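Researcher: If only I could read backbone structure tokens as easily as an amino acid sequence. Walk me, if you will, through where the backbone shape changes along the chain. I have put the entry right below:
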Amino acid sequence: MHLFEHWPEPGVDDDKKKGFFDQVRRLNSSYPGGLVSYIQNAKKLLADSKAGKNPYDGFTPSVPSGEVLTFGNDNFVSLEAAGVKEARNAAFVLVAGGLGERLGYKGIKVALPRETTTGKCFLQHYIESILSLQEASCKMVGDGCHTKIPFVIMTSDDTNALTIKLLESNSYFGMEPSQVKILKQEKVACLADNDARLALDPNDKYKIQTKPHGHGDVHSLLYSSGLLEQWKNEERKWVLFFQDTNGLLFNAIPSALGVSATKGYNVNSLAVPRKAKEAIGGITKLTHVDGRTMVINVEYNQLDPLLRATGHPDGDANCETGYSPYPGNINQLILELGPYIEELKKTHGAISEFVNPKYTDSTKTAFKSSTRLECMMQDYPKTLPPSAKVGFTVMDTWLAYAPVKNNPEDAAKVPKGNPYHSATSGEMAIYRANSLILRKAGAQISDPVVDTFNGQEAEVWPRMTWSPRWGLTFKDIKEKVCGNSSITQRSALVINGRNIFLEGLLLDGTLIVNAVDEAEVKLTGPVQNKGWTIQHVDYKDTSEKEEIRIRGFKFEKVEQLEVNYTEPGKHSLSA
């Protein structure tokens, strides 16, 4: 009854009282099992937390089975082809409930430039990548296939309006608006104490205080939206979940989807090689004394003690490959739709939760501030039966993983040799990956130089970027790079178009090529100009835009060659 202690007599503030019950109704309907379940779950988790109960009691860790891919070899190329073929049977789900505050950016994270050579934002890149997959997949099966790949974006109160505005003001970046579905997650009630009493909003006694529940909500939202059944009726097979600021992700999607299809995985977690004790969760098989098993992400600070406690005296140690046998989880999941629906019918999308109260002292009797239950998208496999086929796909970090989540101050404090995961490292990683891909395809790409931006040391490769329809898979790229092309370190190359071929291009400067799909363009011979130089920007320099300040550099566009091919037919750029 503590919620009503401050209420005045009937007739006073009746509108606000009605508002309170409206809020309660919303909180009740948006949580599987309603507020009663929420409070029951909270009491149990808070009691476990107070008692210091180890969630892994009774479990023994072992190395799970999965696929380790090598970029560009025959197996990788054939898996990419299998994945592209399968893409028309997939749906994509982006979890984008977070603002960029932790980055030092006030807007939504998906509106940030993925790289500043073109300035294309993350959301544009994701949509163009899905559209390229859609087109390539249909082309592969022929039969006048016109499948549209559904794209779901999970937003929150913080990001919903801004996400819709970004889509509408850019004509959905070329996607049909009917392909995009937005699901908004609600917040959950805050808990005031160990008895799970609901906390009132400190600024409004007629409101329950609420906080985000985490991206695990995506499962219950998909379940209650009816989309999964709709996809099943359309004979779709796969649901791919991804997070908002990994600019390299789509390099990994075709081959990982190929692994799911050829291995028959119900759950496929994308992963990267992980050094022992590195601050990234490890994918681990857990076997309980009662026979239960699960393949799950175990946070790095829990993995080492768990291994030590179960007969591994060295804990989380590197094996002969130089990496931990427990690969690093990057929170991108591919689920097989049929088994996913069957599982959600049992759970209604409820995901195993945790609570992380900040106690005032070691007695653990009071909280510094209210807490709430949280859940994570990648904990979905925790409730699966042992018969479920749960695996992983490991790809090189340089190819697949460069998240943007830390602000410049925090990134500069990262121990040397560990990833910064900042806007600086995220953009530089794109140029590095593109350079290494073109090198593998046979072009001569100069080595990078090392520079420091906002206190972070980074390799600066040539600034190369292309539209997804130019280079969706390695095979596509290899077919378009022939002859002896070379690109110097100070160069920048932007490829916007499908049929653009590097045939003995000698680039020393900046070249931007735009071409309609019906134009076939050969880039040959020397192109030399003063190019774009890199200027350092201090993150405290308020004369620059936030999205520039957080990366620590900008381009001075001194000179470039920009060519536009608007007519069909064969063209050649040669000096």
Remarks:
- The CA atoms of residues 89 and 235 lie 7 Å apart.
- The first strand starts at residue 59 and ends at 62.
